[in-house]
Specification:
The structure holds two protein chains of two kinds. Chain A is mainly α. Chain A is about 60% helix and about 5% strand. Chain A has a two-stranded antiparallel ribbon with strand order 1-2. Chain A starts with a strand and ends in a 5-residue tail after the last strand. The two termini of chain B are about 30 Å apart. The chains are: A mainly alpha, B mainly alpha.
């Protein structure tokens, strides 16, 4: 699964730390999600998409093989 | 994410204090002939040597449990997953050592195997857990630069 968090952050002009604070996780977790090393839980994914005000599918995209 | 059954963050320091505190007690006891690893064959439990063994082992184990299962500053779902992974590795390693030592040890060594089993899972769990967090922090720092 890939994601557009980095792009969305740039559009909204917020840092990883800001996003981490907003959803209640550590900055490292946001970093590993952005670099596709960690797949967030549904709850966390929904929280992130709510911060960006977009549907989940626009932020997190399934890849072939998932 | 709610993580249950973990000690508060400050318990980590209490745990380290217990571990550090138990070392001089062992050294002090040894100078009086108390060696927790070589209990003399005394009848019954709660003999002075046995009590000394219980006190030092309890102090060390309490310290290790507090250190290993204290919450992180920011406790999130990734930390919970890393903790579970590390626990799995620690149990694997523990049983590997246990099985190997059962195969290659004779009856006199069983006490030493028990001693090993007291601390190996917790120590290995903690080392592996901290190592993975350290690697995550390092890669996050490198990307930030």
């Amino acid at each position: 699964m890939k994601n557009n968090i980095r792009v969305e952050r740039a559009i909204k002009n917020i840092t990883q730390a800001d996003l981490a604070d907003a959803v209640g996780v550590s900055r490292q977790t946001i970093n590993t999600i952005e670099s596709n090393k960690y797949v967030p839980s549904t709850v966390l994914a929904l929280k992130i998409s709510r911060i960006f005000g977009k549907p989940l599918e626009e932020i997190f995209i399934l890849e072939e093989g998932d | 994410m709610k993580t249950r059954f973990l000690f508060p963050y400050w318990c980590r320091y209490l745990g380290f204090a217990c571990i550090v505190f138990h070392i001089p007690i062992i050294l002090f006891g040894k100078s009086f002939g108390f060696d927790p690893h070589n209990l003399p064959d005394e009848p019954g439990i709660f003999s002075p040597h046995h009590l000394f063994f219980i006190a030092t082992s309890l102090l060390m184990l309490t310290g290790l449990v507090l250190v290993a299962f204290a919450k992180e500053k920011i406790e999130d779902e990734q930390i919970a997953q890393l903790r579970a992974d590390s626990l799995q590795w620690a149990i694997y390693l523990n049983y590997l050592i246990l099985i190997t030592s059962l195969v290659f040890a004779n009856q006199q060594d069983f006490k030493d195997i028990l001693h090993l089993n007291l601390w190996i899972p917790l120590v290995f769990f903690y080392i592996r857990f901290r190592w993975v967090i350290f690697r995550l922090n390092r890669s996050a720092r490198e990307e930030a630069i």
